[in-house]
Known about the structure:
Layout: H1 11-21, E1 25-27, E2 46-48, H2 56-70, E3 82-85, E4 91-95, E5 100-101, E6 104-106, E7 109-111
Amino acid sequence: xxDVDLAGRxxxxxxxxxxxxxxxxxxxxxxxxxxxxxxxxxxxxxxxxPGGGGDQAALRVGLEMALRFFGRTKEALWRKTKSTISxxxxxxxxxxxxxxxxxxxxxxRMVG
Length: 112
């Protein structure tokens, strides 16, 4: 979150900022999926993307999938959701306060 000068800050500060500002958190850090450290009741929306090791192609696929699934809804589907997207575009680990999904099918892709 370099655009708001949060680079290098503690994860709890980043999570709290995203909650206060109603921003989805796009990250490579799977630690944000830990509900004990980052509780669901104040979850701004977390999407863990691939490409953290520098794989730009995987990051591009992950961002495209995030936009496809979360970005085209009237309601902010990402709000209070924690999910991961693989470098192959597979959406997994989708959790909300009331829903836990292991597999979702979007078009011809298996998601989950």
